[in-house]
Structure formats: C-alpha cells, structure tokens
Amino acid sequence: MTNNKQQITILVVGGAGYIGSHMVKMLLGVDYKVVTLDNLSGGYRDAVIGGEFEYVDLANKTELERVFKKHQFDAVMHFASHIQVGESVIKPAIYYENNVVNTLNLLDVMVEYDVKSFIFSSTAAIFGEPEYTPIDEKHPMNPINPYGRSKLMVEQILADYDNAYNLKSICLRYFNAAGADPDGLLGERHEPETHLIPLILQAASGRRESISIFGRDYDTPDGTCIRDYIHIVDLCSAHLLALEKLIKEKKSHAFNLGNGKGFSVQEVIDVAREVTGKDIQTANEIRREGDPAILLSDATLAREELCWKPQYSELSIIIEHAWQREKRHC
Asked: Does residue 91 contact residue 98 with C-beta atoms inside 8 Å?
C-alpha cells in the first residue's frame, strides 16, 4: 500500500449520518480519497461535503458488489447502524436485520474483493449494566437490549472473520457522541431526536417547550443520571488514529472511548443555560427502566495505544459548538 494518502481510498458506510459525515470531513481534511455509501434512511445527502457518493442499501448485495468492483478500497469504516435503544426493544427485527445481517453482507463483499481493514463504530452498550465504572475493555459483556446485543454480535463475527479470512478490524465502543463541527458545517440531525444535548438546545431555541428529566432520585450528587459525553471531533479523531494503526499494523483491536469524566443531566442543563443565556424549562418524569445511575467509559487503553488526546473535553465547549449549529437551524 502506498504511503500517499490521496491514493488510499476509504469507504465510509453511513457517511451521511451524524458521526459518518464528520468522519468524511476529517478524512478529506487529511487527504484521504473518500467514497461515502449511504441509503439516506437516517442521513442527509447535503451532509456529505466531498468525495464520491454511492446511494446504496447494505441489504442489496448486488449493488455492494458493483461499488467494490468500481472502486479499489483500502479500508472500510462502518457507521450505518440503527442506534435507538428503546426502539430496539420494540422493533428488534429491524436491528438484527440492519445491524447484523446487513453488516454481514458488507463483510462478505469485503472478503470477496480482498479488502482486509475494517473500522467498526461499536457501543459501550455491549457491556450492559455496569458491574463497575468507569468501564474498561475487561468489563464483562452482557448487553441488556437488542441494540447492544446486535453490536456485540458484530464484534463476535469480526473475531471469527479475522480468524477465518484474515479480515482485520478495530472496534470502538463509546456512549454519547455530542457537539458539532466547530466550523459550523455539520451537526446532529436525528429524526426523531433522542440525544440529550440537542434536545436541551431545542428547548433553548424554542423548537420544543421543555426538556424532560427522567428521574431525580439516583445515587448521584444531584440525583440525576451521570453520562459520558465525547465531542464528535474527538470521536472522529480516535477513528482516524485507529484507521492509521490498522493500516500500518494489520492487527485487530477493540478500544473503549470516553471523555474521562461524566456530567449529570442537571449539569448539562445548567451549562446549557450559561452558554445559551436562555431559561431552559424542564419537566420531571419518572425513571426509565434500565437507566443506570452512572455510565462512564475508561479510555486509558485508547489514549495509550492510539496516542489519542481529546481536544474538546470541556462540557461548555461541546455545548457551545452544538448551540452554534442549533442557532443556524432553528
């Protein structure tokens, strides 16, 4: 493989979505050749700011083969999973079909066309209820919902494909991607929106009346859940470092990614009020089933092995970048 990045071609699957579109922008910024593949079921064509675009569904193996025949890929990055935990409980079939079966289609075509490097956007939901926190890579894996189980299945499949077909992969597990492109070009556009920070900012901008707080009686300093929020740029930089490590070393790994500290729901709301200058209304609701008090990811291994150093760990910066994006679209 050439060391000239402009001649290294990366396929970004799900590159029109929130994380994928930021990843495409970052790859282009460091001179990789990028092809985005997306069926636009949860993404937006205008979020893909460069490179080539292929409108393809992973369920269509014939079209996948056409794309692999057309391009010579050096690696594939996968961001095309369904991600809503609650929906996965109600509609498990679509999660197993898209997250597992469709990913298998992709992996089989990779094997067929001798593409041996795969970056998988996984989730810390594979660990289930935490036995301890922060969660490191040695934590037992016992997912408690179809979403987490579907992701763990793919990780297990990848281990088997490594053994059988020499397809090398790096799986990156994290909880809450947050923030927006500092340049203001990209941001969250989920429909429906389920992530805390954009929901809070929609309340700040007037796009919704209030933000719901699900439980104020947790064993935390202010009674609300504590979660790990990682800036989208930092998340993508970890994926980029993982890609470069995989291309260079050709060894499979798995890394947990996190900010290194957690923030409670109330803290996020309080900081959002400071950043926006808005009086954000809240509504107290009962706890949601399966919500642990604290979820934090230990990223020590990623920091050591990938030399990963998050730039935007302050909550105020994460919210500020997301707020700039929200103001452009409210």
From this structure: no
Cα dist from 32 to 10, 123, 214, whole Å:
7, 26, 43
**Helices and strands (H and E) in the chain: how many:** 11, 13
Query: Which residues, in sequence order, are CB contacts of 303 under 8 Å at separation 6+?
Result: 309
Give the torsion through C-alpha atoms of 20, 26, 28, 30, to 10 deg. Answer: -150
Residue 197, strand partner residues: none
Whole-Å CA distances, 161 to 91, 169, 248, 304: 28, 9, 19, 26
Determine contact, residues 25/18, Cβ cutoff 8 Å.
no
Alpha helices in 55-168 (DSSP H): 61-70, 85-90, 92-95, 103-112, 146-165
Torsion angle defined by CA atoms of residues 23, 156, 93 and 292, in that order, rounded to the nearest 10 degrees: -80
Residue 86 to residue 288: CA distance in whole angstroms: 10
101 CB contacts (<8 Å, ≥6 apart)?
Answer: 59
Per residue in 145-181, pLDDT (tens digit) is 999 999 999 999 999 999 999 999 999 999 899 999 9
- Reading the block at residue 1, the tokens are 């493989």
Work out the number of other CB atoms within 10 angstroms of the CB of residue 190: 15
Output the six-digit token pair for 184.
């203001």
Alpha-carbon distance of 171 to 32, in angstroms, equals 21
pLDDT, tens digit (0-9, with 9 covering 90-100), for 94-152: 999 999 999 999 999 999 999 999 999 999 999 998 999 999 999 999 998 999 999 99
Exposed, middle or buried by CB within 10 Å (0-12, 13-18, 19+), for 273? middle
Residues labelled as active-site residues: 147
Model-level pTM? 0.94
Asked whether the beta carbons of 186 and 49 are under 8 A apart, the reply is yes
Domains and CATH numbers, the chain: 5-177+230-256 (3.40.50.720), 179-228+260-329 (3.90.25.10)
Determine the pLDDT at residue 260.
77
